Every structure is written in structure tokens, then in C-alpha cells.
Amino acid sequence: MFICKAVDGTCKKLTSLDSLGNGGGGVTPPGPTPSGGPVTIKFPVGINGRNEALDVLNIQVALVQVGPANGGQTPDFAMDGICGPKTKAAIQKFQLQHFGWKGCDGLIEPGKQTLAKLNELLGHGGGGGIPILGAGPGGAAKQAGGSAPSAAPPTELQKGIALALKWILAAQANVIAAIPMVNSKDTPGPFQVFSRSERMRHLNKHFLIDKTPAKMANTRFVLKTFDRMRQVFERPGGLWGEAAFQPDPLKDNTVYAYTWWGGFFKGGQHRVEKKHKIRLDTVFLSPPFTPLVEERKAFTIIHELAHFVGHPEFIDDHAYNFQGKMKKINNLPPHLKLLNAESYSNFAYEVANGKEAPIF
Whole-prediction pTM value? Predict the structure, then answer.
């Protein structure tokens, strides 16, 4: 079954795409929202580092976010807060590209050049921005006496996709950090930022984990959902060698995007709709998606990905956070929050940006 994000903000369930084009009201997109702050660590990470779990996790996420073109890592190692051989090798690879062998000690320290370079590439404290997936060639390692070729300017679509990936990585990191605390109890102490209530705050707000009988299983369900979203970006061409995000071949003006429920598991499968061969393993972005601001693009992509990767239970649309319907989404019971696409967009937005998602 196809599921479409209509321009009135709702999702429509369609056994085929024949009913597209029947109208729908527009919504005013929110203004741009700043991204999260700089990467910080309390203790050294890497070879001979103290390797505290949260510090390691911050570095793992940052190395994925800067991307391979800037010496970062493709998202194929476990972001688990453990500084194993792959994480150490990724640190050395990054240092080698930017500082040469003399600066390649495999250790990232607070306030030192490697951490500063990561933040510069992420747009926190220097020139240069994060490279965009599929933005073109470039970013090759600098050679003596030369410089790396520059990448082609990213398109607006690529910016939205890259921002969605950043939010997904932030969501993964938040859930991973919470997992050790799920079955523990809060203890008083001076460092409440590391308390159970703080680690579980976003999970309880958006998924009511503590009100479910299987707290760990449901926390891992949330993590599995974001893990699958991340896997959409893992292959160079997208899923199964073909980009997972494609322009809508039907050019429908009544929806932002559409995909097939559980399409993540439909590799290479098609349906013929309106004389077009429509891939089931793809998220299609329709013309009204193009003028959306970057943050709204990313929010929509994560919403659609929730439908796309949900399995064996489909992630549906039980409530939205728009047009005065926040009360409904806030009042969903726990089992429906876990199976509500907008809950995943809201969670990822809030974790990545440090504030609630706009009400559309």
C-alpha cells in the first residue's frame, strides 16, 4: 500500500496511486531553524584515550556527519559508544587527511586541533560546511603542494536529505545513550545531566517508554527504526544500487512525498501506476516538496522513512503535530506513539535542535 504525505499535512493510504491529484490545501512552512551546537567531549577519545561512552558516541556521530569526502567515515560502523579498532582507524584516517602523518596520533582531545577541525567542517567555528551526499566528486585527500578539488554545490534536495541524516544520527545517539538506563532507577547526585530521567526524557516525551510493560524492547524498537532509516543512506547509490529518494514521476501537486509501506523490504519490486513503473523501494518527492524550507524537507523525509522502514508492524499516521492537533498526538497511548510516523520526526527534530518541532 502506498502512503502519501499530502500538502494539507495528512497522509493518505492508497492501494494504488490512481486517486492522486484530487486536491488538498496548502500549509505555510516554518522558517529555518538552527542546527545543533558544536561537538564537545570531556575526555580524550581514541588510542590511549579515556574513551568515556558519551564522548566516544559524540565523536562517532561527528565522523559520520562530516562524510568520507572530508576524511570522515561512511556510516557502516556501530555507533555504540565503544572505541574499538574501527573507530580508532576512522580517527586516524580523518587526522591523516587533514594534518598528515605528524598529526596522526589517533587521539582526539578537548580543545585540540582534531576536535576543532571536526567542528569547522560541521559549521561550528570556521569556514567550510559538511559535504552533501551525492553532491558530486571532490573532497579527495590533499597532496603535498596541492589542494583537494571542491565538490559541486549541493542542490536544495540534497541539503534536505543530508539534514535528515544528521537528525537521524542524533536520534540514534540519544537512544543508544539511554539504553543502559532503561531498566535502572534514578539516583540523586550532582550530575543530573547523566541521570536516568534526563537520558530518558525525549524517549518518554515522544514514546512514553516508561508507561509500557516492555521498556527495553520498545526502546530497542525505536532504535531499530532509526537504524533502518540510517541504512537507507549507507550505499553510495542508495538502496540496492539506486537512489532511495527520487522525483515523483507522476508529478502530483497534491502531495509532498509518498512511499510504499515497508518499502525498505521490497528491493527491486515495482507496480505499474498510470503507465509508470513505480519502484516500491523508493521515497518519491513530489513538486510541492521542492519549495519547502530545508528543515521542513528533513522533517518530511524522516516521516516518510518511518513508513518506509516499519516492519513487521507498519508505522502508520495516528496523529500529527499541525493545525491545532498537538493535543491528539500528546494523548496517544504508548503503543500508538511507537507506531506513529510523526513521533519519529518530532523526536529526531527535538534531539538534534534542542527544541520542539514547529507546529505546521
Answer: 0.64
